[in-house]
Amino acid sequence: MSATNNTKAAAIPSEEILSRKWDECLSNVIVKSGIGLSVGIVASALVFKKRSWPISVSTGLGLGYALSQCERNFNPTLVPVAKYQDKK
Amino acid sequence: MMNVNRLALAGSKHLRPSQYRLLAQRFNSTDAQKLTVAEAATRPVVKSGLRFRTKAFITLTLIGAGVAGVVKHSFDDEKFRELLEDNIPHYAHSLDKLEQLRDNEDVEKVIAGATLVGGKIVDLSKTGYRTASDLINGTTTPAPEKPAASASSSAAQLVKKVQELEQPKPAVAAARAEFIPSETPAPAFLPGAAPGKNASHVEKPKIVEKVAKKVEEVKEKAAEIKENIQEKIAEKKEEAAAPPKKLIKIAPIESEEPVMSSLNATLAQLVHILNENGIPEQGHEVFEKANEELKHLNERVEALKVEGEAQAATVMAELTEKYKRIVDEKEEHHEGHVSQLKRELANAFEQEKKDAIERELKIQQEILREEQKQELIKYAMDMQRRWVREVKVRVENERGGRLARLDQINLRLKTLERQGVDNADFLDQSSRTHQLWCGVKALEKTYEAGERRPFDRELARLKRLAETEKDAEVLKAVLAAVPESVAANGVDSVPELMDRFEYVADKVRQASLVPENGGVLAHGMSVVLSKLMFKKHGLVPGNDVEAILARTEHYLVENDLEQAVRELNQLKGWGKRLAKDWIVAARRRVEVGQAIDVINTHANLVSLTLA
């Protein structure tokens, strides 16, 4: 696992790391919201008597998950429930 | 299209009557009354949604809640507060005022009073609810809690408790047994509890009377028992005050032994204690017996002592006689021994003296012989030298002319040899210098090519040349400093670097507005806002990203790669991370260029020293 990580890091020229991050972010958004959408559609059709809110809820969940992944990708130092305290 | 589908779905959905009515109104004209055009015109148009008043109210409430929340949070979180203070005018002033207000004691009192009132209201509401539920559920009495009645019942119960604690148990148990059947459970708890269960309220006056009666009875009984107890105590005291006993007397025994005296002391103490407390007659006799026996023991001990001393004296006398006899014998023996030893020592001493004298004589003889030998050798060597000198003088005189000439010829031959060798050396060196020059030029050509080209072959050739040269330490060091990977991959050319720099500068600009530890939103904002920033060109002063990029570009155009690298290295944060690879590539090129310069200089030096 570490070997593939190293080669992956070596292949990117440094000026493109942000572009890579954006690419990953975009693909995350598309994939996760798509999955959310499909799960929502299936759930709405099978379980929730064809109402419309499960679809939007599920898509939103997917989008939110993608957003949090993006956030972590751009800011790896982020720890959940951490508050930034100024050093006094 | 959508509407039709909705109605079709309505069949499978569960609809409330109102919902169905609405749907039917919209799509199905037969099931509901249609309005005529005139009626529709005259009917007042009811706007859908809430009234303006309600909307305004809701909005204001939400805004108020929002502001309260913001204020509260800014009290808790310092960083948030600073952010708001920096950006909202007069915010700091307002917050200070609020803090003063909060810390103000008058306000605290007001708040405390308010909470108290609130508590009372809550209590009242609770009792109201209880009575209401009683009413609903069918209990008989509706009355709310009356403080007076509860106070009297609680007073009666307190009195009862006090009685219980004062009396001895059996009397109270009897009283209680009479109590229990007639009372309801409530008064048996702590006073004041469960006033809500008011079903027993009717019986309470009767019970209070009964309780009073019982209390009086119990009081009488308590008085009786007290008297009894006091009588008993008086009796016991009389018994204790009996006539005093006869005291025991013992005679103190004196003795030298510490054991005896301690025994005596102990016995005296025991007697003293017993006399104080008073014991029956038997003990008295026993103690007198013990005292007599102690006396006997003391006498026996004295007698034994005397006997022992007498025995010890006789034994001592015998032993001293024996030892005297033995000591005399030993002395005589010893004297004879000592005189014999003296004689022997004297003889040995004489012998030793003689031996020493002989040895000394021998040593002296040897030394004299050695000296003689040395002198002879010296004389022989002297003779030989004189002989050799004479021979030499004679030979040289003979040689005279012929030999001198031979020497000259030898000298000239040697000179010629040297010259030949020097020539060869010179030619060798010049050829090597030429080769070095060629190698350097080849390397330079690869370096200056318009694209990246590997130069490992040229470098290897130069290394081989450097091996054979003397005084080429610097060259070898410089050649070794160029890493293999760089040589194998080559270095970028300046146009390539410039192209790459444009791309890198673009990316750096995009990332220039990201704050520390920014997330995806911060990066997005930076990308968008950076497009609104002006680009700078030329040698502009300043430490911001745009200035640094402009200066780097300037130096690149002037072909001053070193300065460009130094400038770009000043970036911080994301910019630096993005520009790292470019900086590395440019640095490599600069380093290889410097190495080539050094080799050039070396080649120059070598060719100069040749000539």
UniProtKB/TrEMBL annotation, chain A:
It holds the Pfam family DUF543. Coiled coil: none annotated. It is found in: Mitochondrion inner membrane. GO terms for cellular component: MICOS complex. It is a single-pass membrane protein. InterPro entries: Mic10. Keywords: Membrane, Mitochondrion, Mitochondrion inner membrane, Transmembrane, Transmembrane helix. Belongs to the MICOS complex subunit Mic10 family. Component of the MICOS complex, a large protein complex of the mitochondrial inner membrane that plays crucial roles in the maintenance of crista junctions, inner membrane architecture, and formation of contact sites to the outer membrane. Component of the mitochondrial contact site and cristae organizing system (MICOS) complex. This is MICOS complex subunit MIC10. It comes from Linnemannia gamsii.
TrEMBL record, chain B:
Residues 208-242, 346-374 form a coiled coil. The keyword Membrane applies. It is found in: Mitochondrion inner membrane. It comes from the Eukaryota. Its main location: mitochondrion. InterPro entries: MIC60. Keywords: Coiled coil, Membrane, Mitochondrion, Mitochondrion inner membrane, Transmembrane, Transmembrane helix. It is a single-pass membrane protein. Pfam families: Mitofilin (PF09731). Belongs to the MICOS complex subunit Mic60 family. Component of the mitochondrial contact site and cristae organizing system (MICOS) complex. Component of the MICOS complex, a large protein complex of the mitochondrial inner membrane that plays crucial roles in the maintenance of crista junctions, inner membrane architecture, and formation of contact sites to the outer membrane. Plays a role in keeping cristae membranes connected to the inner boundary membrane. Also promotes protein import via the mitochondrial intermembrane space assembly (MIA) pathway. This is MICOS complex subunit MIC60. The lineage of its organism: Eukaryota, Fungi, Fungi incertae sedis, Mucoromycota, Mortierellomycotina. The gene is FCJ1.
